[in-house]
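User: Structure please.
Assistant: Input sequence and predicted structure:
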Amino acid sequence: MIVDLKNNGFNLKVEHNLNDYLSCRIIEDVRLNQILILQPHLINNLEAKFGKEVEGKRVYKTPGTPRFKIIRPDDNDDIIDPDLQSRYRSGVGMLLFLTKHSRPDICNIVRELSKCMDKATMGTYLEMLRVVKFVIDTKNFCLKIRPKAKIKNWSLHVFSDSDWAGDSETRISVTGFMVYLMNVPICWRSKAQRGVTLSSSEAEYVAISESVKEIKFVYYLLKDVGIEVDLPIVVKTDNIGAMFMAQNASSGVRTRHVDTRYHFVRENLEDGIIKIEFVKSAENDSDIFTKNASQEIYERHMEKVLEEWHGEFGI
């Protein structure tokens, strides 16, 4: 049903039973009280563009090759020709849009591929095709939105992780986090940190500060629209050293960018906005945002946020 509302010269259409939004297919499952989101238009475009190149290739169980790292080539002779380079940029760009709305599971490998948008080699091009093949084979995987029952106020929590010195060239670490609202994944990120950290604890601490910035934005956004969120917001990390840095004033921070983040996180701890808790690495949902995980780790974490749709693919 579509309702037309005219006000001050503007036409506003309110559509109930929404099933398509920004090229995302919205599937409502009343029986399980959940919504599934997938992007069939984009995946069909990927298949039309790269389908012949990946046809007949093996079926992969993970989006990226475990422990795969990209090193930008020094010799221009290793760089693929301009036509392939253009296809590479197009493929990575489409995958980036896919990670934004419905496929958090491919975040890390797509971040890795985006490091050489102007200097891709045949090895990185083949890795991009592997990701495309995986996406096509798992095209019915949907982002699962199944909120837990609201008792009083809404709840936020976040998982944070880092891969210390993960970049083989610059030794910059990788930050990864996943934010949940009422047990529903609402934002996720896999990104390189801005500076070099001197220990794994410092890298994890920088990752915590990034996740705190994100949840504060979400918290105040919800507050502005009249939704109360339980405090403190739980931030989960798998590094004891990072927890010590946050909770102790004499942590011996050694670099300016970490020192600034230290005071930022400490302030939110003291104000009661956040609480940092330890979580085992095996139970840290953000683990797959900092490294290309094995099949066991990938499946363990992704079953929490993805679900396979067994109905008809498409809009």
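The chain has eight helices and twelve strands.
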